[in-house]
Known about the structure:
The complex is a heterodimer of chains A (475) and B (233).
Chain A: E1 2-8, E2 17-23, E3 29-36, H1 42-45, H2 54-57, H3 66-80, H4 91-123, H5 134-140, H6 142-163, E4 172-173, E5 176-177, H7 183-191, H8 198-218, H9 220-225, E6 232-237, E7 249-253, E8 259-264, E9 273-276, E10 285-288, H10 292-295, E11 298-299, H11 302-308, H12 315-327, H13 339-358, E12 377-384, E13 387-395, E14 401-407, H14 409-412, H15 414-428, H16 437-449, E15 467-473
Parallel strand pairs in A: 6-11
Antiparallel strand pairs in A: 1-2, 1-15, 2-3, 4-5, 6-7, 7-8, 9-10, 12-13, 13-14
Chain B: E1 4-9, E2 12-17, H1 22-28, E3 52-55, E4 58-61, E5 72-74, H2 78-94, H3 109-116, E6 133-134, E7 140-143, H4 152-156, E8 166-169, E9 176-179, H5 181-186, H6 189-198, E10 204-206, H7 219-222, H8 227-230
Parallel strand pairs in B: 1-5
Antiparallel strand pairs in B: 1-2, 3-4, 3-5, 6-7, 7-10, 8-9
Amino acid sequence: MGQKITIDPVTRVEGHGKVTLYVNNDGGIEQARFHIVEFRGFERFVQGRPFWEMPVLVQRLCGICPVSHHLAAAKAVDVIVGAGSGDELTPTAEKMRRLMHYGQIFQSHALHFFYLASPDLLFGIDADPAKRNVLYLAQENRDLAYRAILMRKFGQEIILATAGKKIHGTGAIPGGINKHLTIEERDRFLHGNPPFNIDNMIQWSLDTLEFFHQYEQKHRDFLLTYVNFPSNYLSLVRKDGAMDLYHGVLRAVDAEGQKILPDVDYHEYYKYIEEEVRSWSYMKFPYLKMLGQERGWYTVGPLARINTADFIDTPLAQKELELFRSFHGGKPCNHVMHTHWARLIEILHAAEKIKLLLEDPDLLSGELVREGNRQFEGVGLLEAPRGTLFHHYKINEYDQIVQANLIVSTTNNNQAMNNAVLQVAQRVFKGQKKVTEGMTNAIEVAIRAYNPCLSCATHALGQMPIDIEFVDVPR
Amino acid sequence: MAEIVRVYIDGKECLAQNGEYLLQAARENGIYIPTLCHYEGVKPKGSCRICTCKVNGRLMTACTTPIAEGMVVENNTAEINEMRKAIIELFFVEGNHFCPTCEKSGDCELQALAYKYQITAPRYPFLFPTKRVVAEYSRIIIDHNRCVLCKRCVRAIKDAEGRSFFAYRRRGQHIEVILDKRMSEQMDYEKALEAEKVCPVGAIMARRIAFTTPVGHRKYDKKPIGSDVEKIK
């Protein structure tokens, strides 16, 4: 007779999930499962709706990164209206969308690092839960919390200026964008009163990296040994191999850095990726077809992007990438906690990109929409803050959606998160007779590194009731 | 010259031409009476009942009631407003109105009325009826989930010879608007846009790229419904 330990809900992640640990008679963890307990059904209920609603409708499945869904859906319907496959929009449309996207990356990564992850790093995994949250962070480190809030705000204001709303905007339309940036908006972001301008945001991004480096020097063993395992990594990269979060080709590398998916056209993703359904979770398990279910699972997100890209096309982020690469001996990094480092490099990259875009006159004027010959199928991919996001739609002759397939970023990380949970649980729970709050948080720390968005807007802050349930389960 | 008569709306003395409908008379005097089925230039129907006022103590629809000398009208009172709220809530629960993803959001009169009357949630249970989206027409799509059966499209969208493009079919709770098949072949892009504009909600969508008007630039984004009559600054 073994036992089952349940951590429900998992806190400081986006959405609702729970963890079940199966304990054997010797007290060891035999199996760990990270369940997503929300059922959304979007793929079914968008059927019958006009295709042009997709960018506005499907983004409603998330309140945290709706911009990513908005843009991925828009890229898919661009194909349907014959506006090209992602890089053939008008310069104004593509640049406005990129600005929106980098604003989203900037604010989402800031939210995750400062609000969700940093309390664990600053106060310790087994600290009092009353202190292990962003409110206590604000008390203890006012300057850090102040920056966190303003960095988020800056990203949100970029989204407002490009999408029309901070959350669930309507800026991206089939074949383009519905507005220009005004001169006032541009000048505010470029030269606004300190600290609210892009130069300051770049500086704060650098400061945050420096903060991480100091932490890393003091806690190197923790970051390197907490959770690590070989994984495949998948992301979009630009055709020349540069990191590109908005558009590119699909690349996957293995744990040693060998290309296992060599820069393929993402419109044919279904040739390379399959999804497996398991009865205990509403989240599917995608894998690379050619490697099969056992070996084909992969990681997406900041760590994957850092591992797959050849270089970053902004100078400050490239310098950080070189530091990251040299730390890991030029090989892919398989240390999950270094995802935080990768995420901070991306914050810097996003800030640099925002500055370049703001300086581009195409944002202020130019053609907004392009259309061509109607197609009956469209695929849109981009790199959301949490990883590669897939939107795929088929329409009938009356412009109605007949089939939709969404593979969201967190879904791609499903197997990797389960592996991380198992590895940490086996170490932390080994030989322990009593389960403490710190032990369950240790599991959550591993999950949080992936910054999973388990569905939409549920956002747990600080201490939430973690019900730990011991149940005898027959073997 | 038409005879000028005196009516009292919520205690305010108003002058208007004898025989005018109460709705028009109120508007000329800067008093807003909400409407949904009414459309300027089209013969009033009085079917949605939102413009109901108490006229000399009796409930009457303002869009179909001609004014007369000395009429005493209750319009913006707690009792009338509560009744109007109830009517708006009924529209919401007996259809499937998902404002967040509707392309009419911001331009929708039903949504604007809900904001004006500060409706946060309806008091009645949602019926979640099964409704069709009819997309077979070449120029427009009709989403019956959003239709409030105001009949504005039937009454207002006509060809040069006065023939309606739209009609009702079926009866009772099964009634729905259809686009006449033969007339639909005559419908051009401009007529489709006109039909979309006449529809107070998002039930009639011209087949085109929606959401081209950014948030913040839609009709009711800046000023609430009725403010053009009330001259709210």
